[in-house]
Amino acid sequence: MRLTLLSTLLFAGTSLSAGSALAAGELNLICAADVVICEQMQGDFEKAHDIKVNMVRMSSGEAYAKIRAEARNPKTDLWWAGTGDPHLQAASEGLTEEYKSPMLDQLQDWAKSQAESSGFKTVGVYAGALGWGYNTEIFKQKGYKEPVCWADLLAPELKGEIQVANPNSSGTAYTALASLVQIMGEDKAFEYLKALNANIAQYTKSGSAPVKAAARGETGLGIVFMHDAVAQTAEGFPVKSIAPCEGTGYEIGSMSIVKGARNMENAKTWYDWSLKPDVQSRMKDAKSFQLPSNKSAEIPKEAPRFEDIKLIHYDFKTYGDPDKRKALLERWDREIGAVAN
Fold first, then answer.
1. Confidence (pTM)
2. Burial status of residue 79 (CB atoms within 10 A of its CB: 0-12, 13-18, 19 or more)
3. How confident is the model at residue 11 (pLDDT cuts 50, 70, 90)?
């Protein structure tokens, strides 16, 4: 009966939409960026290809954990976006597939470097510096001094006014942890984090959640990637972005094909498509203000520029290493998470 119906449809020349069960194929995608850009990318891709995208949105740490848990029976084909450290960890553990996109030569050096350091098991799709965004109205009403340095976040009056994500679930927060270790040295960084804990109202699951809370007036300040703070300003909220005076780390948002992907060719199709300049130029339409990896893509005017920020020489290889990452997270759990407010 089913064969007869299918034959009838095909021979009748019935057109089948990309979203139907009989589309050219499917793609099982984890998107580790903000939900608005995830949905825009999904919609744009489906319009351009006869491929149905089954998308799940989760943070970088959650994405890595899911891919690791499913290693023997992968249910995900491609992991798009999210901080590069967990992508590098997945690559070093053999969880992702080597792929050299024909688009590689069009990319910024930092994006190509990400690919080369991983044995071409991941690639940079965007970049953004770490900092924070604070609610200017709250700070004015309460008479708080503008915090322009990491040290300023320890001010006693900021008790209960700061949010940051948990580095176990959030790539943003892991970048913050690894950046502080590189700026201060590991022991001093943990001393700083213990002192900062007194001012932390909440450790969130998502990396961008803290500045969204600040925008809504639920907290004074969120430690986030600066482009996430800029996005709130663009929405009309009273949020000001800060790049810390001592220096800061940055992310290379990355993309990886899962080893053993069931829809390998469709994963490669998304991979190449998402590196095109016109696709990356569209990201600003979702108020996603990162620096695009394609040299020809339009840089949003709101995007925080690296040349205006004091960046550290972030060691992606060391801090994307599974052993180093595990050790830092275990120490955070023992010394910060266990005593968190």
1. 0.86
2. buried
3. very low
